[in-house]
Design goal:
The protein has 207 residues and is an alpha/beta fold. It contains six helices and nine strands; from the N terminus they run E-H-E-H-H-E-E-H-E-H-E-E-E-E-H.
């Protein structure tokens, strides 16, 4: 059974809107497009590259798909070659122009479509696509949540978890790692554990 990975660049206050450039997503008057650029370093690039080694399909929301489709077909580096070769899937209620070779639009039954992706592909990655990610998180239609947390606070913008996120327990799958510029890599796996509460006073007494 294949796995669904959500990959997000985020700030300390979990803003994940428009990390790549000023024109990426200015919805809501977001003034910080491109906030990631001053903080990127070679180690972060290595992390991202390592995460791509097993990727064999892309699943994108409409806005991110349009950005990728305008850029990656013209790139011949390692990531560009990979993205242009593998199947791409776009989730949209509209009728996007599927001009990027190898692209398929998902149907309206998202749970069924994701189940089919799991059957077809070992490692499907959702990159960016923050609006679409909210649905995947809410419906628990993912296996891994991969965050690259950058040492910056923006105070405004779309966040990884918007209002309406459902309680879920995650497990850290490997030790957190830090890049020279202070970016922290966190890789979580969704678990079946219930979210529970307790009394810290009792924990302290037991200790």
């Amino acid at each position: 059974m294949g796995e669904i990975h959500i990959d997000l660049f985020t700030t300390v206050d979990l803003v994940a809107q428009a990390p790549g450039g000023p024109e990426e997503d200015d919805e809501g008057g977001f003034p910080w497009g491109g906030w990631q650029a001053p903080l990127i370093d070679e180690v972060v690039g290595q992390w991202v590259g390592a995460g791509m080694e097993t990727l064999d399909a892309l699943l994108l929301g409409r806005k991110t798909y349009d950005i990728f489709a305008a850029y990656w077909p013209h790139q011949s580096d390692q990531i560009g070659t990979l993205f242009n070769r593998i199947p791409k899937y776009v989730a949209s209620r509209g009728a996007p122009a599927l001009e990027w070779s190898g692209t398929t639009q998902l149907g309206t039954d998202l749970a069924a479509e994701v189940a089919q992706l799991r059957e077809r592909h070992a490692s499907t990655h959702v990159i960016g696509s923050l609006d679409f990610v909210q649905t995947l998180l809410r419906e628990r239609l993912f296996d891994f949540l991969n965050l690259w947390v950058h040492p910056i606070i923006l105070g405004t913008g779309k966040k990884v978890f918007e209002s309406g996120a459902v309680p879920a327990s995650l497990a850290l799958v490997e030790p957190a790692a830090t890049s020279p510029n202070g970016v922290v890599q966190l890789r979580y796996r969704l678990t079946d554990r219930d979210v529970t509460t307790g009394d810290m006073a009792a924990v302290v007494q037991e200790g």
